[in-house]
TrEMBL record:
SUPFAM superfamilies: Glyceraldehyde-3-phosphate dehydrogenase-like, C-terminal domain, NAD(P)-binding Rossmann-fold domains. Residues 137-232 form the GFO/IDH/MocA-like oxidoreductase domain. InterPro entries: Gfo/Idh/MocA-like_OxRdtase_N, Gfo/Idh/MocA_Oxidoreductases, GFO_IDH_MocA-like_dom, NAD(P)-bd_dom_sf. PANTHER family: BILIVERDIN REDUCTASE A. Residues 7-123 form the Gfo/Idh/MocA-like oxidoreductase N-terminal domain. This is Gfo/Idh/MocA family oxidoreductase. It comes from Rhizobium chutanense. GO terms for molecular function: nucleotide binding.
């Protein structure tokens, strides 16, 4: 790797993810933070308090001339900020979802290619050793697959306030769904052909045309099928809130969650505890040949450590000129599926892709 000068980075958006990414840049000598962007002045960790907070992204981009823009703002600004950064000659890290429409996502990818700059999308699970292992074991089983996944969050207080802010632009099955649909796409390699969705508004604290509970179903070209469910709010059940399970004719691989975990704990969303491998093969007596195998994932990275790994990948992508074509294509594909599910929720009709 060309160690060179530190990559000068402008960090836009100082919510949970923005602050975590800013800490990752602060603690990595490969980066130098040249400024932060946020409309308000939030409470920041001590390490970040010395950096200047700029109220306007375009002005900060023009004045500071960073090498990298890290975009962690609300989803509806992602595409415009990313394209502006590419046009200014920057590399871009952008939190998921890449955009709020497929056309905007494709516009960002096209801008990255035109500028000859790197685009990394914040799929944090791609940098998690346990999720990498889950995908590897599932691929060994072979298609067709059944994907069963959810992440419901019983939220209150500040967490519910954050969820309500997110739902001004993005439903839970789009905001969270892109992660888990991305996992499905990495396992099957097959193209999604049809998506169905259903959703329900369970609170009068959100807009009349928004829903805080949703489920999508996706059908793939190789016969694989999957569902993903997400709900946010004080009314959401803590029962079976975390299901991560892949089945195939040869068996199944699952993440087994700690029974004491809480759904609104951010580390719960990534820590996996145990990966359980079940093999379907039976002997002459019809009984299973092998017992289920539990792989204990010790020393798991927490949320901040995962953000550190994600930004270490961003640094490698720039310095080693990594080919990110598949990375970008997968991000558009998972967004296309989740937005089709949102369309299906609103129209009541399945969407052919």
């Amino acid at each position: 790797m060309n160690q060179g000068k530190p990559i000068r980075v402008l960090v836009a958006g100082l919510g949970n993810m923005g602050r975590s990414h800013a800490l990752a840049y602060h603690n990595d000598p490969g980066f130098e933070i040249v400024g932060l962007v946020n409309r308000s002045t939030p409470a920041l960790e001590p390490e970040l308090q010395a950096y200047t907070i700029h109220p306007d992204f375009a002005t900060a981009l023009a004045e500071l001339k960073p090498d990298l823009c890290s975009i962690n703002t609300y989803s509806d600004s992602h595409a415009d900020y990313a394209v502006a950064a590419f046009e200014a000659g920057c590399h871009v890290f952008v939190e998921k979802p890449l955009a709020t429409t497929v056309a905007d996502a494709e516009r960002v990818v096209a801008a990255a290619k035109t500028a000859g700059r790197k685009l990394v999308i914040g799929y944090i699970l791609r940098h998690h050793p346990s999720w990498v292992k889950l995908i590897e074991e599932a691929r060994k089983l072979g298609p067709p697959y059944v994907f069963r996944m959810n992440l419901n969050q019983q939220s209150s207080g500040p967490t519910w306030a954050t969820h309500k802010s997110l739902m001004r632009t993005t439903s839970p099955i789009v905001d969270c769904g892109v992660h888990y649909v991305d996992v499905m796409c990495q396992i099957t390699d097959a193209r999604a052909v049809e998506v169905r969705g259903m959703g329900l508004r369970l609170s009068d604290e959100i807009a009349a045309d928004m829903y805080n509970y949703g489920q999508l179903q996706v059908l793939f070209e190789d016969g694989s099928v999957g569902w993903y469910e997400a709900g946010w709010g004080p009314m959401i059940s803590e029962t079976a809130f975390f299901v991560k399970d892949v089945m195939s004719p040869k068996g199944a691989v699952s993440i087994v969650m700690d029974p004491n975990a809480k759904s609104d704990d951010i580390d719960t969303h990534t820590k996996t505890s145990v990966i359980r491998l079940h093999t379907a093969a039976t002997g002459p007596d019809g009984k299973f040949i092998r017992p289920d195998q539990d792989m204990r994932m010790t020393g798991e990275p927490g949320h901040q450590a995962l953000c550190d790994l994600e930004q270490a990948f961003m640094l490698r992508a720039i310095r080693e000129d990594l080919n990110l074509d598949r990375h970008m294509a997968d991000a558009v594909a998972s967004l296309r599926i989740c937005l089709a599910a949102d369309e299906s929720v609103r129209t009541g009709q399945p969407v052919r892709l």
